[in-house]
Amino acid sequence: MLVQSERDVDELEVEDPERIAYVTQTTLSVDETSSILARLKERFPSLVGPRTDDICYATTNRQTAVKQLAGSCDLMLVIGSRNSSNSVRLVEVARDFGTDAHLIDSASEVREEWLRGKRVKDISEVDAVREDVRFMLPKQVREAVIAVGEVS
Questions:
Q1: Residues 76, 78, 81, CA angle at the centre, nearest 5°?
Q2: What is the pLDDT of residues 43-72, one digit of tens each?
Q3: Higher confidence at residue 51 or residue 39?
Q4: In this structure, are 31 and 73 located in the same domain?
Q5: 92 and 149 in one domain?
Q6: Are the CB atoms for 80 and 94 separated by under 8 Å?
Q7: How many angstroms separate the CA atoms of 34 and 28, rounded?
Q8: Same domain flag for 3 and 31
Q9: Which CATH number goes with the domain that contains 108?
């Protein structure tokens, strides 16, 4: 069953509420997902979910950075593809925080009217989230590297 809001949770009818599980779409707003999950857990105490957060770390980190920046800027331009739900979501997150935001593919898409009344007072780098996720090579590759090292 598709659940897209807390209201959907309230209207949800399941055959056996003791046997219910969930997964989330990785491109959803982290805040929106959290409130829906909280409502699900409240309504279905036996709810089972993934062992780890299934919203990808990059999506979570980008949304965190946008939230942190949104309060200190008048305009946010998200550079990304219009068919990228992650890019679209970043614009929505900025707007949810009251910041004027637009999705662009390139500098040529910036409209002059977006810039009216906006001033660059300070240019600074913001260290919002440090990404330190590492992915292991597949076991076969690791074993091949070790084998090559032993032959040399």
A1: 160
A2: 999 999 876 555 566 777 888 889 988 888
A3: 39
A4: no
A5: yes
A6: no
A7: 10
A8: yes
A9: 3.40.1010.20
